[in-house]
Amino acid sequence: MSTTPNTPTSAAREPSCKVSAGPHDAPSSPAGKRPAPPCTLVIFGAGGDLTKRLLMPALYNLAVDGLLDDGMKIIGVNHGERETSVWREDLHKSLQQFAADKASTFHAGKLDDKAWDWVAQRLEYMAGEFETDDTFAKLKQKLDQSPGGNVIFYLAVTARFFKPIVEHLGKAGLLKEGEGDAGGFRRIVIEKPFGTDLASARDLNAHILSYADESQVYRIDHFLGKDTVQSILAVRFANALFEPIWRREYIDSVQITAAETIGVEGRGKFYEQTGAFRDMLPNHLFQLLGMVAMEPPNSFDAEAVRDKKAEISDAIQPLTADDVVFGQYERGPAGIGYREEPDVAPDSTTETYAAARVYVENWRWAGVPFYLRTGKRLAARRTEISVQLKPVPFRLFRDTPVDALTPNVLTLRIDPAHGTSFDFNVKTPGPVMQIGAVQSSFDYADFFAERANVGYETLLYDCMLGDETLFQRADSIETSWCAVDDVLHPKTGGAIPVHGYAAGSEGPAEADALLARDGHAWRPLKQDAVEKK
Ligand code: BG6
């Protein structure tokens, strides 16, 4: 596909913010982007992995781009006494390590010292337990030093602390927003897992919403921070080519894959409770499905986009045991089995692989199967969406029956490859009319300078601006859990069986059978042969 980079077109997103940007000494911001308003970012879980791996790299990248206000402050809360200087130094060291590590998403090479110093000067550490009044009284004192100030409370903690932290913030009066132009915003950012099923998600929403308004709650799904995921809407709605065929009359099926080669990476305890299905399906994979299936919104206004996405989660037909296959990796070419991993029971029945057939019951998609799969220790790392078109209606080429033609497939590559590809048919060279399948592809790196983005840059920046487009609303979270509730709590038939697959393989054979009964097959994870054909 031949594409030339065009003048960037900004989406008609005009978020409201209450405070205008002040003077700025960080590098100047990219054209068309303004620095976020001044705010204090309070990170609960300052000593955790998320802060170090994702939040700090994202803040650093925003500082490099000059998108943070000089008035910004970052208060890190964690249990255990620690000097601010020690926290800063720890963060600096890990940032340097990630920047130097080619396998890291934050492979920035050498750090820009000016940008890091800018961030470091704004860091302050505060020791505090997440469940004691004392912590919140201390925090209030600090925040009262700049009354009316904007504050974002980022809950980078394990899920069991979500409720107590929000409750303490509410009771301490820290979620009260100022009024009028002088007022400051108070926002809460919550990580996944947002509940473990429908009942717990409802309960968590109700709890949070008894202390804060929905407009103050920013529920993160980090997949939505990825440029390649946001680009799904650009591909669909900025090109005249796709919209006419983006419907049941032309689309045969859609495959959504999030395959990983890593195992549980020392997260045995968490994974034993969660499993691949809860970890990935009703959140990340449903988000991708939503981007593919949603109707065009009237604008890129947050509510317009979120309304359209909410319609999709609402239209997902509740999954049953017949629609899903679970698997667990066993010792194989890629290493040990799941049951041999630390903190995993030797007779564990937790699934490390999940596949599902999903139907979106609405006018556009009725009858089109969406096949979703995710798993650990698979043959390749590959997050992508493949949209397969129906065959042509008539056998025009004598030697090639319609069903022998390679189907047209548009693949949107999310990770680690970034781009798109399209499978189609041409005449092979020579005197005889013969059909040959080819693939045309576009790679981001060929057209744009790729940054060492961790995906949280846009999410943090949008939260500071008050733009909720990429965050999940309470209703969508609940309808997504609702669609999978019968799988998690089967009313009949018992738990879903878990089938073994060799570490490093394509997944369990039963997942192939799930598609085979509809006359379909998964696209191979190891696709080198197909791609180079
Ligand atoms: C997380 C899951 O939400 O997403 C992990 O808890 C998974 O188990 C990860 O590995 C995948 O995200 P990414 O961005 O690395 O594809």
Automatic annotation (TrEMBL):
Residues where NADP(+) binds: E129, F130, K192
Designated gene of the protein: zwf
Superkingdom assignment: Bacteria
Catalytic activity: D-glucose 6-phosphate + NADP(+) = 6-phospho-D-glucono-1,5-lactone + NADPH + H(+)
Pathway info: Carbohydrate degradation; pentose phosphate pathway; D-ribulose 5-phosphate from D-glucose 6-phosphate (oxidative stage): step 1/3
Domain Glucose-6-phosphate dehydrogenase NAD-binding residue range list: 42-230
GO CC terms: cytosol
Binding residues annotated for substrate, in chain numbering: H222, K226, E260, D279, K376
Record-given protein name: Glucose-6-phosphate 1-dehydrogenase
